[in-house]
Amino acid sequence: MRFSRQMKTVEEALQELLARLQKLDEEQVELGEAYGRILAHDVIATCDMPPFDRSPLDGFAVKAADTVHAAVDQPVYLRVVETVAAGQVPRIPVDPGCATRIMTGAMMPAGADAVIMFEQTENPGVHSEVVGIKRALRPGENLSRRGEEIAQGTVVAHAGERVNAGTIAVLATFGYSQVSVIRKPRVGLLSTGIELVAVDEPLAPGKIRNSNTAMLAALITEAGGIPVLFPVLPDELAEAKQKMTGYVREVDLLISSGGVSVGDYDVIASLADEPEVTLLFNRIAMRPGSPTTGLLMSGKPVLALSGNPGACFVGYELFARPALQCLAGKKQVSLEPIKAQLGSPYEKPCPHPRYLRGRLLQKDGVLIAQPDFNDKAGNLGTLKNSECLIVIPAGGRGKQAGELVDVIVHAQPSWREEV
Amino acid sequence: MRFSRQMKTVEEALQELLARLQKLDEEQVELGEAYGRILAHDVIATCDMPPFDRSPLDGFAVKAADTVHAAVDQPVYLRVVETVAAGQVPRIPVDPGCATRIMTGAMMPAGADAVIMFEQTENPGVHSEVVGIKRALRPGENLSRRGEEIAQGTVVAHAGERVNAGTIAVLATFGYSQVSVIRKPRVGLLSTGIELVAVDEPLAPGKIRNSNTAMLAALITEAGGIPVLFPVLPDELAEAKQKMTGYVREVDLLISSGGVSVGDYDVIASLADEPEVTLLFNRIAMRPGSPTTGLLMSGKPVLALSGNPGACFVGYELFARPALQCLAGKKQVSLEPIKAQLGSPYEKPCPHPRYLRGRLLQKDGVLIAQPDFNDKAGNLGTLKNSECLIVIPAGGRGKQAGELVDVIVHAQPSWREEV
C-alpha cells in the first residue's frame, strides 16, 4: 500500500473521519465551571425578563397625563408619596397629582405609567415632599415592561452552543446554577520516532525534542478536549499495534504524529496494511501533510498527523479541530472558508491545493490574508503567528496579490498591520 | 458631585485608569501550564534549528555530481552503503558512486550533498544493495541545513506575548520545560444592590438574580485573570467604604457593578465624594454606561461598572479588558479599532458616541459589522452573540449601511452569514 495510496481531497477525507464520530454524552456542571463547554440542551427562560414592570433610570414614576403642561420654565408640581429602591415592592399607588421617587431597576408602583429622570426635575440633588416636573411625558415613556426583552418559555440558548460569558449571564439570570453540557472529549496523543527526546532532556547528535505532543496538547485543551498523553510509540509493528489497541480504548479519539510517510520505520503507515485496521485515508490532495492518515482501530477513530511540525499543525486544523467539534455535538461541521484578498503573491507551483498558514489583516474594511513564507513542513518558528489557513488552489500559477482566496480561520485575528 | 460630573472621553478615562496600573511580577510555571500566559522575558533559541543537516524526506542521500546523467529511462546506479533512521548518527561517509538510504529527519551522512525521494528511484518498495536514481539533482537539493530556519541565539518569542500552541512548540523544541510568565492578575468582583439574589435562590417580587458577577468572572478568567468573588456590597456608605478598603488590599484590581448612577442608594457614586478616595472619572461620553466610574482606594484602582448587564458588558470590554492587558505587561495598550462597513443603518440620535454590540461578518472579502438592535442597557439576552463594539459617532444622524465605522473586536468572529 505504501507507494500506491488512493488520493482523497481534504473534504472527502474529513467526511470519512467525521462519519465515524458521534456526539458524546452529557454531564451536569456547576455554572461556574460551564464556561467554554457545549450546551447539551436548549436553555429556556424560566420567567419573563424583566420579571416585572420596572424603571430603567433614577427619577420619579408619574402619571403621564399629569405632565402634559410641564415645561422647563413652567414645572408641574407633584406630591412625592413614596421612595422605592431596586429590590423593594411599592406599597402606595400613584394617584393623580402624585409621584413616587424611584430608582433604576425598581418595580413600578401601581397607577404610574411613565418615569422622568432626576435631571429633568427641579433641584435634582434635593429630597423634598414635592417634585417639579420640567418636561411632558408620553404614557409608557422610560418604562421597561415585564417580558419586553424575553418572554418566559423562550429558548435563550441552543443545544450545541459554546458557553461564553454572555451565555453565563443568561444562565445566571434564569437561575441555572447547574448546566447540562457535553462531556469533554478525551483525546489520546502519541508520537512516533526514536529521534525524539523529551523537552527536559539534553539533545544528542541526530535527536530533536518532541514539540508536537506539547503543541497538540495545547490545541486540544483550547478546543475543549482533555489531552491524554501516551509514551512515544515503538517502531516495531506488532508492539506498536498492541499498544495502540490498548490506547484507543481509553479515549474518544487518538491522535498521533509521525510515522505516516513511506520511510522504513513509519509504523503508522505499516499499520494501515494490518487486517484488524480499517484504513479511512492515507493520501490527501494537500500540501503540507499529504500522508495524513485516518484509521479505525477497534472501532475507534485514529487521526495520524505528519511528524513535521508545520504539517502536523495544518493537519490538526483541517481534521482534528472539526473532529472535536463533531464529538461536541456541533451540527453540520465543515471547514467553512471565508474570502479575503491575498496580501502577497504566492506563485510556487503545486499539483495539489496548498494550505498556507497566515494572518488576517484589514485595511479600510477589506480583509487581507497574508501568507507566512516560513512554510516548509519541518519549520515551527512561526506556527505561533498563524491565524488562518490560506487555500492556494492546485496548479502552476498560484495566486496574485489582491486576488480573492478561500481562508479557513482558526484563531482570533490580531489585525496586525505589518505585512 | 452626583449631578455635576466632569465628562471625559472613553480614551481619556481609559488612560486615567491605565496610568494607575503596573505590570505584575513574574513566576515560573511548567511548560504544560504555560498555555494562555504572558511571557515575562524574550525566549532565545538554545540551539540551531534544525540542529544538524538533515533530510526533509524519505529517500537516498547522494552526491549530486553522481546524478548528472540520471533520467527516468536511464537511471544512474549507486551502491547503498548504509540505512539511517531519524535519530541515528550516520557511520559511513558517502563516497563517489555510493548512496545512503535515509529517512525524514535523519542526519545527513558526510560526503552527501543532496537527497532523492524514494518515488524517484527504481522499485521504491524494494530494499536492495543498489539503487537506480531516475533524476539529476542539484547540490543542496532536498537538504535542510543546520540553522536554516532559526540560528542559535535568535529571539523566537518576545516578552509580553501570549503563549499559544505554536509558542508551546517553540518552547518545547528549545528545551524550556519551565517558563517565566507574568503572574495572573487577581481581580476582585462585587455587586451592589439589595435587588440581587443569588443564582440558586428563588425570585421574590422586585428582585432579580445577580448575573453580572458570574458574567464578569467568566470574562476575567477568559482574559487570564483570577476572579476573587466578594459579597454583595451594603448600601450604607461607611460600611461599604470599610468593606471595599479591605477588599482592594487582596487584589490587583477591584471591579464592581451597579451603584454608579444618581440613585439614592448608589453607594459607589457616594464613595467618589469621600476624602480618602481619589476619583479618576465618573462620567464618560459614551452610551451605554456613561456613569462608569474609576477610583483609587488605598492606591488600588477600582473600576465601577454600570449594573445594567448591557452597560456592564460594554464597560468591561472598553476598560477592564485593556486594564488586564496592562497588568499583564502588554506594551501600548489601546482599543485599536479596525474599520468595517456598517451592515444596517443606525440612526438613533445620541449626544455621545455609542458603542453597539455586534457581529463581524464578511462578504467577498469585505468586513461587515452588524449591530445588535437588542441594545437597551438593561438587556442581556444577546450578550452571548457579541463579537465586537461598533462605534457610532456622536450626533443626530448616525451612520448609514455601507458606511465605514470603527469597530473594536473582542471575540473570534463567527463569520455568520445571517444579517
From TrEMBL, chains A, B:
GO terms for biological process: Mo-molybdopterin cofactor biosynthetic process. InterPro entries: MoaB/Mog-like_dom_sf, MoaB/Mog_dom, MoeA-like, MoeA_C_domain_IV, MoeA_C_domain_IV_sf, MoeA_linker/N, MoeA_linker/N_sf. CDD domains: MoeA. GO terms for molecular function: metal ion binding; molybdopterin molybdotransferase activity. It is an enzyme of class 2 (transferase). The lineage of its organism: Bacteria, Bacillati, Bacillota, Bacilli, Bacillales. This is Molybdopterin molybdenumtransferase. It comes from the Bacteria. Gene3D superfamilies: MoaB/Mog-like domain (3.40.980.10), MoeA, C-terminal, domain IV (2.40.340.10), Molybdopterin biosynthesis moea protein, domain 2 (3.90.105.10), Molybdopterin biosynthesis moea protein, domain 3 (2.170.190.11). SMART domains: MoCF_biosynth (SM00852). Residues 188-326 form the MoaB/Mog domain. Belongs to the MoeA family. Transmembrane segments: none annotated. Residues 7-34 form a coiled coil. Signal peptide: none annotated.
